[in-house]
UniProtKB/TrEMBL annotation:
It comes from Xenoophorus captivus. SMART domains: EMP24_GP25L. The lineage of its organism: Eukaryota, Metazoa, Chordata, Craniata, Vertebrata. It holds the Pfam family EMP24_GP25L. PROSITE patterns: GOLD (PS50866). The chain crosses the membrane at residues 200-222. Residues 48-130 form the GOLD domain. This is Transmembrane emp24 domain-containing protein 1. The keyword Metal-binding does not apply. It is found in: Endoplasmic reticulum membrane; Endoplasmic reticulum-Golgi intermediate compartment membrane; Golgi apparatus, cis-Golgi network membrane; Membrane. It is a single-pass type I membrane protein. SUPFAM superfamilies: Supernatant protein factor (SPF), C-terminal domain. Its main location: endoplasmic reticulum. Residues 1-30 form the signal peptide. Keywords: Endoplasmic reticulum, Membrane, Signal, Transmembrane, Transmembrane helix.
Length: 234
């Protein structure tokens, strides 16, 4: 009888662990489809590029952009509503962060303009973060087919697991976004460093050549001063 009780308790523990594993797996799969997006593209000189992002009413759309390469490191930035109303307008900026609260549902237009530059192309990075779209994450509908275990089976609480997974997902997503932004800053600083290195190297070589020419000219001039070509009769 004691052996039977031990077997039943072990089976109950394994069943509880299996239920918890299925909950975690379902939570991770539900977090796989993220609404956030990021993109790096090359903006040619004298042209503009527009992108479209669908947003729902009463949500939040956060747009952050940086110019990471190109002469001047600046572009014109505009966000237009589905009806064509200009919500954000910026001119000749290298970076920016804007939070838009959509008052209507539809496709919002995000444009980058480099028409003021005739020769220099720009490399632009931007990221879009959508919040408040599709309802709360971690609800009861995300775990179809998984029944709530009764209290006598195990002490696992699915609500606590869901809340912990939701908090972990939000923090990991925020960390990923911050790392992406830091990589964009690093790429921009590296491009500036390489550009400045080329300029410093070029002007250093030019200065060395000028100094050599001046030195040779001075030596030649001094030797000419002491060069006496008059004949001496003895």
């Amino acid at each position: 009888m004691a052996v039977l009780r031990v077997r039943i308790s072990c089976r109950g523990g394994l069943l509880g662990l299996a239920v918890a594993f299925l909950c975690c797996t379902g939570s991770v799969q539900s977090y796989g489809q993220s609404q956030d997006s990021e993109f790096t593209f090359l903006l040619p000189a004298g042209r503009s590029e527009c992108f479209y992002q669908t947003a729902v009413k009463n949500g939040t759309m956060e747009v952050e952009y940086q110019v990471i390469a190109g002469a001047g490191m600046d572009v014109d930035f505009t966000i237009l509503s589905p009806k064509g109303v200009r919500l954000i307008i910026e001119s000749r900026r290298s970076d920016g962060l804007h939070v838009v609260e959509p008052m209507e549902e539809g496709d919002y237009e995000i444009c980058f303009d480099n028409s003021f530059s005739r020769f220099s192309e720009k490399m632009v990075f931007f990221e879009i973060i959508i919040e408040g779209q599709g309802g709360d994450v971690g609800g009861d509908d995300e775990f179809p087919g998984i029944e709530e275990p009764d209290g006598s089976l195990l002490e696992y609480k699915l609500d606590d697991i869901r809340e912990s997974m939701d908090s972990l997902h939000r923090r990991l997503e925020r960390s990923r976004q911050m790392q992406t932004v830091l990589r964009a800053f690093e790429a921009r600083d590296r491009n500036l460093l390489e550009d400045n290195l080329w300029r410093v190297s070029f002007w250093s070589c030019a200065s060395v050549l000028v100094m050599l020419c001046v030195a040779l000219t001075q030596v030649y001039t001094v030797r000419k001063l002491f060069d006496d070509k008059r004949r001496v009769c003895t």
